[in-house]
Amino acid sequence: MNVPKHLRKQVIEYEKAGFNPIDLEARSGSHYKITFAEFPDPQIITKNGSDWRAIKNNLALYRRLKKEYEDGQS
After folding, report:
1. What's the predicted TM-score (pTM) here?
2. 32: Cβ–Cβ under 8 A, 6 or more apart, which residues?
3. What residues contact 66, with CB distance under 8 A and at least 6 apart?
4. DSSP state, 7?
5. How far is CA 3 from CA 9, 21, 56, 67, in A?
6. What tens-digit pLDDT sequence spans the chain (74 residues)?
7. Strand, helix or coil for residue 74
């Protein structure tokens, strides 16, 4: 997967937290649609990699989505 330079820090943080991106699609402006292997719902992210609070909030959301998806699969 080809990750733009301004999103690499964010993607690395997501990978460190255990989320594996499988698809990244450019949207309008500075937005990107990212799909993770852990849950099927695509997420919209922005290219602002300097806001660590936003990255932490995204990680918390992704953990909730992963848990909901895993609970639904059982």
Report:
1. 0.86
2. 4, 7, 24, 25, 26, 44, 45, 46, 47
3. 19, 38, 39
4. G
5. 10, 10, 20, 26
6. 889 888 999 999 999 999 999 999 999 888 999 999 999 999 999 887 668 898 999 999 999 999 999 998 76
7. coil
